[in-house]
Design a protein that fits this description.
Pfam families: SusD-like_2. 48% of the residues lie in helices and 4% in strands. By secondary structure, the chain is mostly helical.
């Protein structure tokens, strides 16, 4: 067949076009905006942020259980808000810590550890991730008891999709080991990781964080294993603890990146949650200068729409906490006796100070460290006087109020007056120290509840709600989520056989009478 020049030209043009289409094909089809991977330091930041009340749903779980159990914040409403207020199981709220931590925090930390453990240039990220993983697992095991630990977060890495549950004793011993090793191994000589959301790459402060968490973890074992507790408390002190509020582990917020508890209570839950009477009464009876920082009352409000700024007062004299044991109907029977006109007239958390939209949230603070040292001194585990640590702890928390807002700053004369009026009494030392710890952990429901169970203080009375579902005076743990029973039944059964019934009453290993 005769091939004309027209066909040759057409073939040449087709080949040329095909070649031209291939040129730059890979570059054009790579999304330069959406990353396919993240630096381990940024994944660690993501885990830290996720640990701090990740979203409104997790916040709701905290408000409905931890705060109500320790009688700091309460709601009279049931349905989706029920939990610690009624001493009842709410299957929607009890699994929220589990779901958030395993789906987000632990998975992310496992990825960071896996990506950095063999890279000497990223050793500080590796050890920081180990410290934060220890902190995250303290919250998980303190909430549920025996939990997946050694095999946790390994679904993507080693295809472990049904991790076994580890005994809390083994978990805590490994947490202490991890904190000791990681804190000691942090190297100040390495280049600072300036993207670090907590300390901007300041390794000295990360070391203090690791040892301060070791102190907290060691003190958690004060009743179940005093010898081991003393060993690690001593190591923590030797390693170097927080020295001021500048060392606090803090998540900072802005008008765009909000404090989630503040956002939650400023929006749909504004009229639903109130400061509990035991907390308000303690602060009032002791002339505590923190009360106006924590509290606001919309005096005379007869409904949500009447909770206006014109009615708002933080005057300590007018604060009235909501009594325990009532729902939104039965509370009406005690309004007159409490000096309020409606349930909306009780004291609430101050949305202008501790729960401003840009208010910080704290994981562990200098004040808490000093109060733990005060108890350790009472037990003879550290040098120094309990009274000195106690005073430093109270002062630290009083001064911490300024970190919420300059207007919340407590004057020096008020601090000195409060310290003078509240010296440590050796006969009541453990109660005084741990009651102050209760105040110093306000808005950190995980730590408030854990230390309340460990220490037995403050000496709260049982919530008298008539529909209580618990046999103990207080809720001791959260049950495992139903989803675990569906997908990981054998390991759940093994944990229940070892630990006890999967309910609100079962005490965990360190929670001894």
């Amino acid at each position: 067949m005769k091939v004309t020049s027209k066909y040759i030209l057409a073939l040449f043009l087709s080949l040329t076009l095909m070649t031209s289409c291939d040129e730059g094909f890979d570059e054009i089809n790579i999304n330069k905006v959406d990353p396919t991977s993240l630096a381990p330091s940024l994944i660690l930041n993501k885990a830290i942020i996720a640990t701090t009340y990740l979203d409104g749903v997790s916040t709701l779980g905290m408000l409905c259980y931890n705060f109500g159990i320790v009688q700091q914040v309460i709601t009279p409403y049931g349905s989706s808000l029920s939990g610690g207020n009624y001493n009842q199981l709410n299957n929607a709220n009890s699994p929220l810590v589990w779901v958030n931590f395993y789906r987000n925090v632990i998975k992310q930390l496992a990825a960071v550890v896996d990506q950095t453990k063999a890279d000497p240039l990223q050793s500080n990220i590796y050890h920081a991730a180990r410290i934060w993983r220890a902190y995250a697992f303290m919250i998980l095991t303190d909430t549920y008891g025996d939990v997946p630990y050694f095999e946790a977060g390994q679904g993507y890495i080693n295809e472990i999709i049904r991790p076994k549950y580890d005994a809390q004793e083994a978990i805590y011993k490994d947490i202490l080991k991890e904190l000791e090793e990681a804190s000691a191994a942090l190297d100040p000589a390495q280049a600072a990781v300036t993207t670090d959301i907590l300390y901007g790459g300041n390794v000295a402060r990360w070391k203090k964080l690791g040892y301060s968490l070791m102190l907290r973890a060691g003190m958690r074992l004060s009743k179940v294993d005093p010898a081991l507790a003393k060993t690690y408390v001593t190591k923590a002190v030797a390693g170097g603890l927080f020295e001021s509020n500048a060392d606090n582990s803090t998540i900072r917020h802005t008008s765009l990146y909000n404090n989630f508890i503040a956002n939650h209570l400023a929006a749909r839950e504004k009229t639903n949650f109130y400061l509990a009477a035991p907390f308000v009464n303690y602060l009032k009876e002791n002339n505590d200068p923190r009360l106006p920082v924590f509290a606001v009352r919309y005096v005379g409000a007869k409904g949500g729409p009447e909770q206006t700024s014109a009615r708002a007062s933080s005057d300590p004299k007018v604060q009235i906490g909501m009594p325990m044991g009532y729902n939104d109907v039965t509370i009406n029977s005690v309004l007159a006796a409490n000096g309020v006109v409606s349930l909306w007239d009780f004291t609430q958390i101050n949305l202008s100070t501790v729960l401003k939209l840009d208010a910080p949230e704290f994981h562990i603070t200098y004040a808490q460290v000093q109060l733990l040292l005060a108890e350790a001194a009472v037990r003879g585990w550290v040098s120094g006087t309990a009274a000195d640590y106690y005073a430093k702890g109270i002062r630290g928390n009083l001064e911490q109020m300024a970190l919420y807002d300059p207007a919340a700053t407590i004057r020096e004369d008020a601090i000195q007056a409060y310290l003078k009026a509240h010296p440590l009494d050796n006969a009541k030392a453990l109660e005084q120290i741990n009651t102050q710890y209760w105040v110093a952990t306000f808005l950190d429901g995980n730590e408030s509840w854990a230390n309340f169970r460990r220490s037995g203080f403050p000496a709260l009375k049982k919530n008298p709600y008539p529909g209580s579902e618990i046999k103990e005076d207080f809720i001791r743990r959260m049950p495992y989520p139903d989803s675990e029973i569906v997908v990981n039944l054998q390991n759940v059964n093994d944990a229940n056989a070892r630990q006890g019934p999967n309910d609100l009453n079962t005490r965990m290993w360190w929670d001894k009478k």
